């Protein structure tokens, strides 16, 4: 009996080790089932942030790993660099590979970063407003494969706030007036807006709660720490009429009334924080190690607040209910404010160098006054379309920080896109930098990327990607918030400096060189035409060529109008409109680029006709005028514009047609009022709360040939 007990004690650690890899085995079965019977996982002891080893033994791929997260990265490394297969937000290349490639010489990869972080608050709305559990399951699988071990997870915060406010004395209407609609959660949690787009139906609050619980369970299984929303003092603006506590009116964020801030040094703060964290524990447990939340994000009033004491009080409440937890702060604009940092225990914070492609605050602010930080890239704003990413800068800046005087404070890397359905090389490279200790030359890296993205070496795609690296994915200095924008999606005017208020029409690369690279890329269509990733990229590249040409034609029609040349104006405006129609036809060749694909998500997330309609209104507002009805604060229109078939021909095209008819009338001596697009856009949303009419798709080859022959 003693021998049996002793044997069971010896076998128990082995059983536990085996179980820790079960979630990774399930991941492989979901994404690459052809590999699942040919891989063996073994535990590997290590004190590093993560390590895995690959080797073929007895016709089996053996992945020895320090944990489930490292094991998932090991799977992805094998898929990418041996099988030439990959998963992305813009198509998958995961068809079976037989026979399986052999790893003759043991490959060992050790993580260079303690934290590999993912997701911006905004990603939760520009991409994920209507994600189902199936969508999140796929998302978490991608995160694990790419080595993410810390991820923002705020899908179920409505339920926490709902329960908290009930205990504070709020009725259901008052709570509904505070919680925003399903496409605006990010800006609510960041303290910018309240109520807009709501009310959020109870069914969606409950569904998000259940999804959040599933997410956290799966994330823990795959070695990904969830980052939830901490309590930093944000309260409904109505609370000041109910409480005598020191509540600072935060005024407005653009056209929106902001939630207020309950002074963290007021005794009422600790009481409400206690309720909030108790409700958090009831819904999502006590095993939470990271919390986000930024007081005074993008402005707000700090008058009368002792920021040093306020920061200490926020952190103290967090530590009381979640001892040892880390407060994750965005390094964005002047946040985190120095006065607030002065009051914090820096061993329990993590600062994100959020906009690393253009800032170097980690250096200017001396590692945020000696705080642990991670280097991150935003890459895009509003998930606006466009090919873009300063790839070599990613590699250079991370390497620079690692070899700087502040290297001991650099704890990792992160991807912080406002939307993630774009530019897959940006995310692949950034997260690989968390696993590469040597400096990366992207000229070499991009060749491997092209091979694993499309499944095989191809002279045309390899040459094209070198061209893309020198143009749209270059690393020239200069401030720019995302890709150069498409004139087709501008609110019509004769002088268009940018499509979104903070964007740009400038192309800071050689568009002729880029078009040459796209034509080279298109030569692979006969060989790679069955590849989903190739087709999606080809559509996106050709779309960019057409957008670039559109600016030139627009400039010509403006010149014709200013010269009062009606014939030339008619010719150029007709050509411009035909290019918009051609853009719609190109995008319509793949469901990834169709408006209905995303409207369907919104419709399916509602249980009743009213819920479905509100979901549609949320998404259509967001991608057009964004929100609110104040002409004087109309700065967010087109911030999240999309180039999607069904939106191009039904929204942007008629808007330009209206404007050109107005200009034509001016040239003909008519005295018509200028179109009121502010009103037109709001009415368009209200009139289009339904699927856009489907159109038959033309041949991709045919449309591509037509565009590239222009």
From TrEMBL:
Residues 116-437 form the Alpha-N-acetylglucosaminidase tim-barrel domain. InterPro entries: Hex-like_dom2, NAGLU, NAGLU_C, NAGLU_N, NAGLU_tim-barrel. Residues 23-101 form the Alpha-N-acetylglucosaminidase N-terminal domain. Keywords: Hydrolase, Signal. It comes from the Bacteria. Residues 1-18 form the signal peptide. Residues 445-707 form the Alpha-N-acetylglucosaminidase C-terminal domain. The lineage of its organism: Bacteria, Pseudomonadati, Bacteroidota, Sphingobacteriia, Sphingobacteriales. GO terms for molecular function: hydrolase activity. It comes from Mucilaginibacter rubeus. Gene3D superfamilies: Chitobiase/beta-hexosaminidase domain 2-like, Glycosidases, N-acetyl-b-d-glucoasminidase. One of its GO terms (biological process) is carbohydrate metabolic process. Pfam families: NAGLU, NAGLU_C, NAGLU_N. This is Alpha-N-acetylglucosaminidase.
